[in-house]
Amino acid sequence: MRTLNLGIVAHVDAGKTTLTERLLFAAGVIDEIGRVDDGSTQTDTLTLERQRGITIKSAVVSFVIDDVTVNLIDTPGHPDFIAEVERVLGVLDGAVLIVSAVEGVQSQTRLLMRALQRLRVPTLIFVNKIDRVGAQYERSLRSIAERLTPAIIPLGSTSGLGTRSPGFAPYGAVDADFTSGLVDLLADHDDTFLAAYVNDEATVSYRRLRGELAAQTGQALVHPVFFGSAITGAGVDELISGITELLPAAEGDVDSPVSGVVFKVERAPAGEKIAYVRMFSGTVRVRDLLRFDRDEEGKVTGVSVFERGSAVQRASVAAGQIGKLRGLGEVRIGTEIGEQRTTQERHYFAPPTLETVVVPSRSADKGALHVALTQLAEQDPLINLRQDDIRQELHVSLYGEVQKEVIGATLANDYDIDVEFRETTAICVERPIGVGAAVELLPKARSPTTPFLATIGLRVEPAALDSGVQFGLDVQVGSIPTHVFKTVEAFHEAMERTVIETLRQGIYGWEVTDCSVTMIDCDYQAPPRRWPGTTASDFRLLTPLALMGALKQAGTVVCEPIHRFHLEIPSDMFGVTVSALARLRAVPQTQKMQGSSYLLEGEVPATRVHELQQQLPALTRGEGLVECEFDSYRAVRGKIPTRPRTDYNPLNRKEYLLHVMRRV
Ligand code: GDP
After folding, report:
1. Does any ligand 1 atom lie closer than 6 A to the CB of residue 33?
2. CA distances, 226 to each of 126, 130, 155, 230, 357 (Å)
3. Considering only CA atoms, which residue is closest to atom 20 of ligand 1?
């Protein structure tokens, strides 16, 4: 039995939930078709999703078509949740992208298609809602070719568009226009196929053409297009045939070393963690000891595998399959299990660029709020928590304003905690601008002003863009305290951890990045000359003083997150839009006419994205479309934003020593 891990992706309201229900019904998993509008569907498990009618979290449902087990992985469809979408897309063998036959390609459809192409996920396109008035065949295809990809081929014709009983009839070998269109498309992407065809047109059979179509679809080079209606069921059988014929099943050797990725974490009612793992190779059995995240380990206490509808308890889960694993206490979403895959196959997600402070309406809920948010953060990769111990505040990072609403409603419904959010602010970063060095010297004796028995010298330098923080040792091996750290590697690792932790807050309070730190001086006191001599905490607590000294000397620049915007507006709205952009500090960089529309591209600060999205409909009679995505961090001009520190401020030696000594 082959396995196909399939995702259905779409702009909100294009019909993903309805189509999912249709597929489950056709496959016999459910006896009755739920209606989104009554909130009775299988995949929308969260109450909030039901209320809003959107699907936020991924869930898995499986069914069998012919000899293929299809694991249908639900993906969120809201622009605020693009990162979670990408995380799920990375585990797919294939996808169905839904486009509405009435609305055509929408902004979210483009973002999704771009992500699918980046990850090279084989994708079929389903043009839905052909029963609705205004549905159009040619215009839909044009919109897809212009705005998604020109590498498409419709696999059938439609009838009764805009009526209650529309139809989709697949093309076959006898449809000459279809076969010649198919040959042209396939020849564009494969020279051997082209040569074979040119040499002997007559011998290229229709079967060979379909085989080549499947091969090129499997490489995400071309995208077959189906038409239908999730409501009436038109075109759904043809889509199902297309899924098994044209999308490639999961590959992977069940006997190779284990490699898999966690794409969802949930908690059982008793609180136990359950990890959803997509296996790429190898086999995981109950009682296996699994390694993950470099130095974590966990024993698998239970395995269930998705089969015919839901997860069934099994002794093992193997390459290609999706399993629920119990017993791995420390896993998070994105955790890679077993062998790390090569970086090429890993996927990168834009960082959250906004944050806000969450405050409980009843101050007695403070503790409960912390517990609740910690649990949510574990289950949802989009929720990052930052605790400010000094001010007793909780910060959550955000991808967009809608997330506030989702988090607020989840806390109220699932945890009975009412919260308020402070104003959303941008999460900036700091980059070093020069080279700086500082040394803290080993004192003769511990004293209130020199409480740490160690010498630490550090040099800070700017590093390449997007390289994060690197740490290296440039000291004699003999100067490393091996009575505390058993090996040079252990010392390196401990120092690196402290350096990275310290750089979470730079001179202005923002995380320092693109920074290279080198240890240039090191010394210690070992027993028996002094008892008990230098300890690990001497190094841990002294590092922030040396590091911030070096960083101050290097100087840093605060950079704010900038998004790229793609704007499509009616051409007569150009003037008003451009002045609105200026008010939002958005800078258009390219512009071109397309039919009666203007396409504008440029940059906008992350903090203004929401206003841009909100203002656009009013500015453009509701006809404007905007897409924004994180681009880069850019030096802030003018007043430098600072973030209140949540540590003991190693920039101020006196204050730092006072707090650290009080704690020790
Ligand atoms: P999702 O947000 O992509 O999951 O979309 P839903 O499945 O929730 O559908 C959004 C709305 O479109 C609902 O009101 C559906 O009833 C409706 N809808 C979905 N598919 C069709 C279709 O094929 N034809 C028509 N007329 N309406 C549809």
Report:
1. no
2. 5, 11, 6, 12, 46
3. 15
The pLDDT tens digits of the residues spanning 346-367 come to: 445 567 889 999 999 999 999 9
Q: Cα separation of 109 and 97, whole Å?
A: 8
Residue 262 exposed, middle or buried by CB count within 10 Å (0-12, 13-18, 19+) = buried
Inform me whether the pLDDT recorded for 303 exceeds 90. yes
Cβ of 43 closer than 6 Å to ligand 1, yes or no, is no
Report how far residue 224's alpha carbon sits from residue 67's, in angstroms, rounded to the nearest whole number. Answer: 22
**Nearest one of 346, 256, 254 to 305, comparing CA atoms:** 254
- Confidence label for 56 from pLDDT (cuts 50, 70 and 90): very low
Are 237 and 25 in contact, with CB atoms under 8 Å apart?
no
Euclidean distance between CA atoms 259 and 339, whole angstroms? 5
Measuring from atom 10 of ligand 1, which residue has the nearest CA? Answer: 13
- Cα–Cα distance for residue pair 95/123, rounded to 1 Å: 5
Phi (first) and psi of residue 431, to 5 degrees = -120, 140
Closest Cα to atom 24 of ligand 1: 129
Q: Is the dihedral of CA 449, 454, 455, 460 positive or negative?
A: negative
Instruction: Say how many C-beta atoms besides its own lie within 10 A of residue 657's C-beta.
Output: 19
Cβ atoms 465, 523 nearer than 8 A:
no
Is residue 13 within 6 Å of ligand 1 at its C-beta? yes
| One-letter-per-residue 3-state SS of 483-501 | CCCCCHHHHHHHHHHHHHH
pLDDT at position 58 over 50: no
State the distance from the centre of ligand 1 to the C-alpha of 13, rounded, in angstroms.
Answer: 6
Handedness of CA 182, 186, 187, 189 (dihedral sign): positive
CA 575 – ligand 1 centroid, Å: 36
CA distances from 26 to 71, 149, 157, 355 (A): 15, 30, 22, 44
Question: 335 or 556: which carries more pLDDT confidence?
Answer: 556
